[in-house]
Design the sequence.
DNA sequence: GCCGATGATGCAGATTTTGCATAGGGCATG
DNA sequence: CATGCCCTATGCAAAATCTGCATCATCGGC
């Protein structure tokens, strides 16, 4: 019996869809199916009724779900506990977030945190949206930092996983400068020639946000996707090199905007203001974790 | 992370000896070592201090042991629960015992049980001594039936695993009949020629008992091992066929003794009276399980 | 009736696990 | 100090398992 089977089952019990769950777990659908079946075989009972649409949990499945949840959490919590013990007093606090936030927001934020709490030993995991959530839910990380915007809510129970606003961010369209500090690749007014566009990889969180921005406008801009990439940092360099236009978190390009190596590529309606939120599990943790959280509470931006 | 790693670790934390624990878990020592290391890698901490003698648990190990124990039990209990649910009202009660007891004692005993409780749906697992204990401890079976004798106590905490005497048994030396209903292969008085002896497989529980019998005598008998076998039933047939002398549980050969196809092969000092005990975990279980246990309490032999 | 979506299955390749043989380290004994 | 014993770790090849791809079977919706 594998821990990952339990996690698979939990994911499935949320989506009630094998293919979707498989994707969330970074597995192919056949593999996922088989792993669920492995779990069922080990138990000796059927957990999921595949005959209905959408699939549904059997009575045993509903009952086992609770136990699986507790078991998974208990194991990760215990692992964290062991690490804490091994690390001694100055134990590591674990964070998980997007690459972008890890680069643009976290380093500075950690400074302000440490300014109030004294030096912290931290561990950071960078991951995709789904993996961030998985990481938090499983207990593998104490805290998650994530963008928050009403147009793209996370699948996360706000009671089980309370959050606090810890910062603000704006997603703004930028380009390398052309003549006279004007954007070389303007979002609008480029005539009939489409503007080269550097896009975030599909199925990522930021793409969902950018799609929201575009969908909110009366006229879609004339863009031609020239490049696709999941790393903000990479897109930023591509943009500075003049490959095209992209949206970037404002904080991550403050210096470049001032220096003029990047310029705003469109009016403010094409920007998106969002929050940066810190999430935690309601499960109580080590003293240090609680200390951090209560500080965040005090200093929360609202 | 594998459930079996947790079980490995629990076994190790009991024996504090990799080789011994590996044997108990039916693994080779290298494999066992690696699995413990896998667990440690997953946790990110060292659980066992190999530097001491005997090996000892680290602080993290001691802490994790509790969690591991709970997790293992929770999972097996939950599995049992699921099976119960799936089986409906008339769920199966699971027993584990030695092959011998399953054949000699259980069938009759179950009748008396059912006489009082009504028909039961039962499941029986036959296993070796170690596996029987594993089975009970892990929660894979509700009840264990086992021989009990002071000379060979089980490694089982009597508080965690209370037991009741449910029957009596005698291990007696028997042989096929020779002339005039005398044993063809007598235990004693065979002159200088050794008596052919059919022995139980080494490392089994019954062998430990028989060794006790022999060790308790002033003079060791003159025996020559002709055959070794872990199955009572098989030894019984071998004995009836006249291959030699062996010790068998009296109940399993009642009919044969009456019919004269087997005869006592030695005086009564060479027999061993023992109890048959039913064990359970203190963990509360399903209603049916509790019903059975309370009946056993009433009807316990003492 | 056809289409898109969903879950199951056959199969080959890749990964992981296992046991055997053996190395290396510590401890007691002569 | 040498020797032998007991313990755990490691190299390696065979075996078992897991995974992904391609494909099939089924079902609901238009």
Sequence:
């Amino acid at each position: 019996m594998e821990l990952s089977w339990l996690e698979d089952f939990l994911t499935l019990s949320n989506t009630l869809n094998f293919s979707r769950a498989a994707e969330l777990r970074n597995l192919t659908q056949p593999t996922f199916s088989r792993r669920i079946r492995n779990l069922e075989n080990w138990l000796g009972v059927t957990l999921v009724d595949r005959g209905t649409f959408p699939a549904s949990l059997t009575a045993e499945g509903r009952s086992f779900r609770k136990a699986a949840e507790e078991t998974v959490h208990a194991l990760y919590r215990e692992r964290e506990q062991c690490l804490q013990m091994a690390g001694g007093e100055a134990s590591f606090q674990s964070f998980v977030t997007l690459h972008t936030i890890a680069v643009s927001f976290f380093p500075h934020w950690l400074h302000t945190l440490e300014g109030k709490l004294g030096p912290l030993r931290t561990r950071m995991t960078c991951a995709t949206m789904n993996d961030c959530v998985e990481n938090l839910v499983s207990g593998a990380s104490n805290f998650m930092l994530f963008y928050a915007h009403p147009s793209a809510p996370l699948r996360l129970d706000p009671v089980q996983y309370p959050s606090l606003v810890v910062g603000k961010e704006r997603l703004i369209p930028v380009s390398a400068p052309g003549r006279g500090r004007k954007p070389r690749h303007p979002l609008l007014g480029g005539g009939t020639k489409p503007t080269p566009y550097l896009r975030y990889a599909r199925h990522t969180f930021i793409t969902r946000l950018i799609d929201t921005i575009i969908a909110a406008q009366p006229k879609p801009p004339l863009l031609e996707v020239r490049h696709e990439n999941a790393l903000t940092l990479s897109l930023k360099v591509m943009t500075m090199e003049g490959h095209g236009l992209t949206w970037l978190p404002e904080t991550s390009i403050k210096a470049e905007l001032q220096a003029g190596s990047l310029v705003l590529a469109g009016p403010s309606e094409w920007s998106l203001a969002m929050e940066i939120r810190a999430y935690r599990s309601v499960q109580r943790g080590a003293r240090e974790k609680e200390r951090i959280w209560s500080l965040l509470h005090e200093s929360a931006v609202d």
User: Anything to note?
Assistant: Chain A touches chain B through 26 residues (CB under 8 Å). Residues 47 and 61 of chain A are 4 Å apart (CA to CA). The radius of gyration of chain A is 22 Å. The mean pLDDT of chain A is 87.
